[in-house]
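Human: I wish I could look at a protein chain and see how it folds. This is the protein in question:
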Amino acid sequence: MNKKKSFMLAIVFELVIFFSIILFMKVESILFSIIIILIFTAVIILILRRAETINKIKTIYEIHNKEMLWFLLILILVLPFFFKSNIYIIHIITLALIYSIAALGLNFQTGSTGMVNFAQGALMGIGAYASALLVVNIGMNFWIGLAAGIIIAGFFGFILGIPTLKTKEYHLSLVTIAFAYVSYFLILNMQWTGGPDGIAGIPKPSIFGFSLAKSLTVLGFTIPGQIFYFYLVAIILIIAIIFAWRIHNSWLGLTWNAIRDDEIASRCYGIYLTPYKLLAFILGSMYAGAAGVLYAHFVGFISPDLLAFSGSLLLLSMVILGGMDNILGVLIGAILLIIIPEKFRAFHDFRLMFYGLILLLMLLFRPQGLFPKRARNYNLNKGVE
């Protein structure tokens, strides 16, 4: 297959997924939504049963990984114009982008380094509370709150990382679960955090005096404020993706992968594990903090429920569904797991069962995720960016 043809197939593949999501969002009937999901699932099953097709898809992805990622970003930027008359859908898509940032951070730990972290939702909540307290109670602006949320979440990620250095596998997971529950109950029972009532009245940010909460009329066309906030989140997501991409293709990304694959072999090659593991927790937590701040100022209200264990389970499901250590896969997994449950809000009480079922099925039948990551190239002659 020549490069031009494979590139066109990659573009067609993303366009099919893109317009399938648009169709799924526009359909209001639950029955038709289920039919779309069943058709999509059947197509995936048929593809997975054909080894030749899987190999072609892997080859296309390996050749055009970077181009597919950039094309996905372009599609995300034009997405609001398909739903300009439906603010609710723009709201859901914005939430999907916010959770994509947190999922990318979790991918540093679970995907790249092999450390399963069940506290990412709690760290997201810590970032949200840090910004909300500064902005609402002290009067700081959004940008200071964003910086504070990122830094404070990173600090707590460092605190969480210390006890996990001497633990592995399920022991490490238990430590992160304990951290998540301790954080939740502390926020729930402290008066200065608002207790169970949470914090309300969190304002939208302003850029050069223009509030992103306001609509803007240009040439008779009204642009709702939700679209402006969507683009703010999209820009921050693009920055997060570029940073994650650079890390993935750097010595740090290779070192994380070496630790994930074999810690003993990594030590034998002279890799000192402690700083690299801590860095994975710190950077991943900073991503969670940024997502938490964006969530708080988007919704305008936060409560201890943001730190609930279900949030961490949701983020872990995104990483596993899309493909661990695969940036493009994590983004697709995040978008799917925010959009699909919102279409079935009538079954909201069963969302934890839904996430757990996804984890179980993926680990049993597709542990590498829907979009498995190709093997890393450790060829030193080619170098690493």
